Amino acid sequence: MVGDDMALDARGWMRGVRHVPSPNCDARPPGIAVDLVVLHNISLPPGEFGTGDIAAFFTNRLDPQRHPFFETIHQVQVSAHFLVERSGAIVQFVSCAERAWHAGASDFFGRTRCNDFSIGIEIEGCDDRPFEPAQYHAVCSLLSELAGGYPIRAVAGHSDIAPGRKTDPGPYFDWPRLMRMSAWPAERFPYQRWGK
Ligand SMILES: [Zn+2]
After folding, report:
1. DSSP per-residue string spanning 152-177
2. For position 52, which CATH number holds?
């Protein structure tokens, strides 16, 4: 099963997943605790899956000629630590020890600049379609491994920490399912009402 052979190494890279290093990262502030996981969705072109364009985007190789939307974003420099593809396959772009550029202007209960202290997981999908069971399994495996290496206290959606500006992972992301599968306490999902 996806994730069974994953292991976080001392440099913040997950063994057992594909690595596609992105230049879109920099150092975290010294001494900061990485205690938040932020979940996103992404599809490129929007609504299409398995094109390879997400990896191209996160490594500044997106071809602006391939799609009209790409003309507007191909010079944007962003990244996430991980991408979970529709099959549940995981790609890592940035070491967890470094700051990936996924959250932008954001606020986690008064703590701003969430990129400083979070790990970003992009789930291949969109706001108007369900995610695949394999993707929930992969996210759970990632959460479990990450919690072994970092003092993770919470999981939030991008829309939770950037409300009004971001909608992902979107209404089709099944938070109760993730909470059940992870077997983590409800306190680690502070934006969800389920279980209260
Ligand atoms: Zn996002």
Report:
1. --EEEEHHHHSTTT--TT-TT--HHH
2. 3.40.80.10
**Structural domain count, the chain:** 1
3-state SS assignment for residue 15: strand
Distance 180 CA to ligand 1 centre (A): 23
Residue 97 placed within a domain: yes
Q: Is 98 a catalytic residue?
A: no
How many A from CA of 49 to the centre of ligand 1? 16
Confidence of residue 18 (pLDDT cuts 50, 70, 90): very high
Q: Is 98 helix (H, G, I), strand (E, B) or coil?
A: strand
Domain assignment of residue 171, given as a range: 7-188
CA of 6 to the centre of ligand 1 (A): 24
Residue 68 lies in a domain: yes
Q: How far is the CA of 45 from the centre of ligand 1 (A)?
A: 15
Contact of 118 with 34, CB cutoff 8 Å = yes
**pLDDT for position 196:** 40
Of 71, 85, 98, 122, which residue is the catalytic one? 122
